[in-house]
Amino acid sequence: MAAALLSDLLKRHQPDFHAVVPFDPARERLFPFDFTESNTGLSAEEIADTERFAAYISKTLRQHQASYGFGGYDEHRTLYARSKHFDQPVPGSEAKSPGQTTGFEAVNPAIRPTTVSGQNSKGDPGQTTGSEAARTPSALTSGEAEPRRLHLGIDIWGPAGTKVMSPLNGIVHSFAFNNNDSDYGATIILSHNLEGVGFHTLYGHLSLNSIKNLHEGKNIRKGDVIAEFGMRKADGNWPPHLHFQLIEDMADWKGDYPGVCRFSEKEQWLDNCPDPDLILQLKQYIK
Known about the structure:
alpha+beta, 6 helices, 287 residues, Glucose Permease (Domain IIA)
């Protein structure tokens, strides 16, 4: 199903969705962060230093009396220059586009994610080599790797510990601790069904407590508190925020899915990842 068809379905059900984060539009404000090259008020040095970056986020929200920072979908971000994690594919990986399985794990089992649903291959808590932007399609035909800079989700910046709720009924598809610099950190993916149509929601940069005592297939009801915003050691070394993403086809991904893609490949990724504000419905409150 093309993104347009899923988008139409979600629009019809917008009155039914529960808030993903606590927000009262009558009393609270949102601030639209811009992390493209147009934001000249944020230096590369500040972005690279998480403490300074977090201070920038907090200061900006205070100045604008905003409860949350918001935005980023289909945004070409200079932000990802903060980590080499986004500069090239995982060595040895092959193209893996939405809806396509390439035998990635069979080609190079040494770089297969080791933590899916909270356990590594030995059944113990551990870390993954999966990435918010690592296992994306291969380099350009020129032979030079194009960095990943296009954001596929929406970020909601706010205090660590902020509650995250499920917008509709579903089940736990998978979860993981994607523990690389600038990665998702603790991550949960839910599966949903509307009118017989399946799709998924991804929640990244969560606290480690969010994935404790969780199991695949767990029933989730609309409005259930499923997680909370994490801190640096759990969320990939970012200032506290939630990465929220819609995904139509998960292919064979578990506990992870790219949240950043190459600009040259944006059409195929955006077609599989519609605008998350179709569920959040927060953009209308930015003034």
